[in-house]
Design goal:
The structure holds 2 protein chains of 2 kinds. Chain A is mainly beta. Chain A has strands at residues 4-7, 10-14, 19-25, 32-38, 45-51, 56-59, 62-67, 72-77, 86-93, 102-104, 108-113. Chain B is built from no helices and 10 strands. The termini of chain B are far apart.
Chain lengths: 114, 117
């Protein structure tokens, strides 16, 4: 089945700096890659997603890039703010026995310090 | 409702007891998923429901776990004879579904925090 690796597990940046979180996946047939933000005590919330037919997508301060050849995708947050502090999860839609269920990375705890 | 609703938000149970966790998805979302989130871990897939199709139970960790979805809406996850290792946050999500399955983002509920003592 699909295996999603996410790095780093923790990331600390100063307010205004950029943050980058990277993920790799194993199933070359995967075609959908969402990113979720989880704040304390809440469920994960979709913040951006990308499909396999594009290489980059941007929404204000966040962007995601996808390299299908290398099977990796990244989340970029620019001009970080303290409210960006949360746990971020990447995911990939596998094609195995859970072909319609997302496989998630283990998460990155992002801390933005003022 | 406006979002995915899960109940209870917290559940403490004694080892060996059965528990039921409830999920009320967004109206019109035909796909429903259960995930388990253990401390410091990612989200572990448990089970997937899509419309009237047979559920994908491939992620259920043991036969003590079962789930059903009545009328294509509300779902209940049941854990029998709970063990301490079942302690985790159980998350439910729903989504629209396309011909490629989960190619729409999920909307998650806030989860049920289960503690087995």
């Amino acid at each position: 089945g699909e295996n999603v690796e996410q790095h780093p597990s923790t990331l600390s940046v100063q307010e205004g700096d950029s943050a980058v979180i990277k993920c790799t996946y194993s199933d070359s047939a995967s075609n959908y890659f969402p990113w979720y933000k989880q704040e304390l005590g809440k469920g994960p919330q979709l913040i951006i997603d990308i499909r396999s037919n594009v290489g980059e997508k941007k929404d204000q301060r966040i962007a995601v890039t996808l390299n299908k050849t290398a099977k990796h995708f990244s989340l970029h947050i620019t001009e970080t703010q303290p409210e960006d502090s949360a746990v971020y999860f990447c995911a990939a839609l596998g094609s195995g026995n859970s072909g319609y269920a997302l496989n998630f990375g283990k998460g990155t705890s992002l801390l933005v310090t003022p | 409702g406006a979002g995915v609703s899960q109940s209870p938000s917290n559940k403490v149970t004694e080892k060996g007891k059965d528990v039921e966790l409830r999920c009320d998805p967004i109206s019109g979302h035909t796909a429903l998923y259960w995930y388990r989130q253990s401390l410091g871990q990612g989200l572990e897939f448990l089970i997937y429901f899509q419309g009237n199709s047979a559920p994908d139970k491939s992620g259920l960790p043991s036969d003590r776990f079962s789930a059903e979805r009545t009328g294509g809406s509300v779902s209940t996850l049941t854990i029998q004879r709970t063990q301490q290792e079942d302690s985790a946050v159980y998350l439910c999500a729903s989504s629209l579904a396309s011909s490629t399955g989960g190619a729409y983002g999920y909307t998650f509920g806030s989860g049920t925090r289960l503690t087995v003592v």
